[in-house]
Amino acid sequence: MQRADKKDVNIWGVNIRYVQAGEGPVVLLLHGLGTSLITWHCNIDALADAGFTVIAPDLPGYGDSDKPGHLSYDPDSASEFLDDFTQELGLERFSLVGSSAGSLIVGLFALEHPESVDKLVLVGPGGLGRQVSWFLRLISLPVVGELVYRPGLHDRISISKRIFHQPPDFLDDLLPEMYRVRALPGARSAMLRSVRSSINYWGLRRQQNILDRLRDLSVPLMTVWGEKDSIIPISQADAVREALPDSIVYTVPECGHWPHMEKHELFNGLLTSFLTDTMGENEPRPGP
């Protein structure tokens, strides 16, 4: 992410931090819950080197973007934010890549604005099945969530165990930034509101499951799953294959919830090939 320039833009009266790198067709990267654009640390330079303009914002409530108390932080509002964000930047057509809950947001955007989307990539995606980890279900509960979700308490253990199957060697270099953004004023409240808007004790709220809606989406779609994902089970990949037979589904062995970081070299190759329509015989094959 060394080549990325930090920028700010005002959306809805909220200051939004984002980074931009490279030149060429636009690829917009959207992070998930409880994190920031740091999740794309291993991907931005690789995409820029491959000939893309890469843009990655901190969503409202996360990272170095503002965290106003009046926002609901639900997926539909986040999709509306994404629409206004891209319009403010003058982006007319682009590819979207979402991680975890960011997948639900970019999926909703693509369903509402398919004319603006070249390609859609969902990574460890939320929004495609009801099953989610017990940790997310617990923090969706009033009072219990406030007790369970306490950034700073066993932070290193929770990030390493929940996000990764085998934490990458460079994780130690990124942990201070992950800790910093999770501890910023307003970040905890935004996280809890985000989770509760789409998850309850039984899992993903039914109205936030967009798998069936994606059947009618004409935008080329690829999903990428870590086979050892402890946040969203790999079994949902089978449902995607059945419901969306024309999509590409990759499963990554020995990998957790963030394949774009844990297996970044493999992921960057897959993503670049998909975005450039160059997937061939030498590419890794989709999981069974």
* Pattern of helices and strands: EEEHEHEHEHHHHHEEEHEHH
Number of helices: 11
Secondary structure category = alpha/beta
The beta-strand count equals 10
What labels would you give this structure?
two-stranded antiparallel sheet, 11 helices, globular, 35% helix, 288 residues, single chain
Task: Characterise the protein shown here.
There is one protein chain. The chain has 288 residues and is an alpha/beta fold. It is 35% helix and 18% strand. The protein has 11 helices and 10 strands. An 8-stranded mixed sheet has the order 1-2-4-3-5-6-9-10, sandwiched between helices. The chain has a two-stranded antiparallel ribbon with strand order 7-8. α3 (101-112) links the parallel β5 and β6. α2 packs across α3. The longest helix has 14 residues, at 75-88. The protein is globular and about 50 Å long. 44% of the residues are buried. The model has no long low-confidence stretch (mean pLDDT 92).
How does the SSE layout of this entry go?
Layout: E1 5-11, E2 14-21, E3 26-30, H1 44-49, E4 53-57, H2 75-88, E5 94-99, H3 101-112, E6 117-123, H4 134-139, H5 144-148, H6 155-163, H7 171-182, H8 187-198, E7 199-200, E8 203-204, E9 221-226, H9 236-243, E10 248-252, H10 259-262, H11 264-275
Parallel strand pairs: 3-4, 3-5, 5-6, 6-9, 9-10
Antiparallel strand pairs: 1-2, 2-4, 7-8
Helix pairs in contact: 2-3
